[in-house]
Design a protein that fits this description.
Number of helices of chain A: 6
Mean pLDDT of chain A: 86
CATH superfamily of the largest domain in chain A: Jelly Rolls
Order of helices and strands of chain B: HHHHHHHHH
Number of strands of chain A: 11
Shape of chain B: globular
Low-confidence stretches of chain B: 1-44
Number of helices of chain B: 9
Helix content of chain B: 55-70%
Order of helices and strands of chain A: HHHHHEEEEEEEEEEEH
Largest sheet of chain A: 6 strands, antiparallel
Distance between the termini of chain A: 32 Å
Distance between the termini of chain B: 44 Å
Largest sheet of chain B: none
CATH topology of the largest domain in chain A: Jelly Rolls
Number of domains of chain A: 2
Radius of gyration of chain B: 19 Å
Radius of gyration of chain A: 21 Å
Oligomer: heterodimer
Chain lengths: 217, 224
């Protein structure tokens, strides 16, 4: 179960519908792995429902109902979710909604090399944020860096740690521009994570700046 | 005839109940469109929205749907117009929201969300798609990778409609400066930065007002 979560403001903006696609991708993928954040978002949505009932009504045109009624037809039938299908062996590395962006299998991703520490794959989104998958090789340390803006890092497999904690599958590190950190992977396994940034990373010493171009959009 | 199809459900979360799917659709729709005009349906002393939506979910009850329409379509239209959308587009989006409510009604689960909230989520998603021209990534409740809640929390024992009544009471109790940002976020659909710009206050203040209002809500629900 996830221990590290997005901050409340992001969960609330996701519930209100204003988070933007890249951030929403990280939030919703974390929510798939985190029942606690699902219940926070559903409570925040109740605020929206309550306020909708108080919106001043704008009268509909008189023909509107008939137009709608003529299109009704039959409601869609649905399949009941069956917990039996959720056997651990069948668990994909990438939960939805991420899976529909990057596919089923980490091996099939067109990874691009990332300056000695691993690989990355940029995920096209239609907002200003930049989403990417990172595969940091086992036993590596990302050079110490700060951030020009907010960064979300959601672990999907493996493990990384920095001075704030140890992050495993489902954990989401939500950092802002004040954080300077030096994440390291475990010696035994590559770490695959989804990272969302709103601007390029900022490295604190000269040499790691060579790494920076690889993190740029 | 019983039709079962896999539906990925942007609007639904969690387990989906199996609504009754046996029906004679031709005859119901026919008698229905001829005789009833939604605006003429009285909504005074009527059961609540949730009861009506459940009737749609379980019985495909078109009269209940007409009542939902009369109550909610004008409000959804109002919601759409808050983002500066013209009346004709807002009207279309309100119609389309209600059409989705009908078509997806089997996904409504009164344990998970109140009717107003479920409808809000559909309207919100349509607004993101059509007005903001953005994509909203959503989880799939049937995903084998989804981690289920380990056990019911205390909040889960309160049905969603009662929970919503408390949410409403709590929102009405908020100080105006908090209620304002909650409204700008959920009703007007503005980002936190847009709210900060419009009110000419720091972004951090917007976030802390939202956080305080949410904490109040959560504490109030814990008390019951």
């Amino acid at each position: 179960m996830a221990i590290y979560h997005p901050k409340l403001d992001l969960l609330m903006s996701y519930a209100a519908g204003s988070s933007g696609e890249s951030w929403g991708l990280a939030i919703a993928t974390h929510m798939a792995l985190c029942p606690d954040c699902r219940s926070i978002v559903s409570l925040a949505e109740e605020m929206g429902g309550s306020l909708l009932e108080d919106v001043a009504p704008e009268p509909m045109n008189s023909s509107s109902w008939e137009q709608l009624a003529s299109q009704l037809g039959s409601p869609e039938a649905v399949q009941i979710a069956s917990p039996e299908t959720a056997t651990p062996s069948a668990q994909p590395t990438f939960p939805e909604p991420l899976r529909r962006y990057v596919g089923n299998d980490a091996k099939d991703i067109p990874w691009k090399r990332l300056s000695g520490v691993g690989y990355q794959h940029l995920i096209p989104t239609r907002d200003l944020g930049q989403a990417r998958l990172l595969k940091i090789l086992a036993g590596r340390t990302i050079p110490q860096h700060g951030h020009r803006g907010r960064e979300l890092t959601l672990v999907l497999s493996g493990f990384f740690s920095d001075h704030l904690g140890e992050f495993t599958r489902g954990d989401l590190e939500d950092t802002d521009e004040d954080l300077i950190h030096q994440p390291a992977t475990s010696a035994h396994a590559d770490c695959i994570c989804l990272a969302v940034t709103d601007s390029p990373l900022r490295f604190t010493s000269l040499i790691p700046r060579l790494v920076q171009p690889f993190f740029r959009i | 005839m019983i039709g079962i199809a896999a539906v990925t459900s942007p609007e639904g979360m969690g387990l989906v109940r199996c609504g009754r799917r046996v029906q004679d659709n031709n005859s119901t729709v026919q008698s229905w469109t001829g005789n009833i005009v939604a605006s003429e349906v009285s909504t005074a002393d009527e059961p609540d929205l949730d009861t009506h939506l459940l009737r749609v979910t379980i019985d495909e009850d078109q009269i209940a749907f007409a009542i939902l329409y009369a109550r909610m379509a004008p409000r959804i239209k109002g919601l759409m117009m808050r983002l500066g959308t013209d009346a004709a587009t807002a009207e279309e989006l309100a119609q389309e929201t209600m059409l989705r409510v009908w078509r997806k009604s089997a996904l409504f689960n009164p344990k998970k969300a109140s009717a107003a909230t479920w409808i809000f989520a559909i309207a919100r998603n349509l607004r993101i798609d059509r007005i903001r021209h953005e994509v909203r990534p959503e989880l799939d409740p049937n995903d084998p990778a989804l981690i289920p809640a380990p056990q019911l929390s205390a909040e889960d024992f309160v049905d969603a409609r009662k929970r919503q009544e408390r949410v409403r009471a709590c929102l009405n109790d908020l100080p105006e400066y908090q209620r304002q940002v909650v409204g700008m976020s959920f009703v007007e659909g503005l980002s936190h930065q847009e709210i900060a710009d419009r009110l000419d206050i720091p972004l951090g203040t917007v976030k802390s007002r939202l956080r305080l209002s949410f904490e109040k809500l959560r504490n109030m629900l814990r008390k019951f």
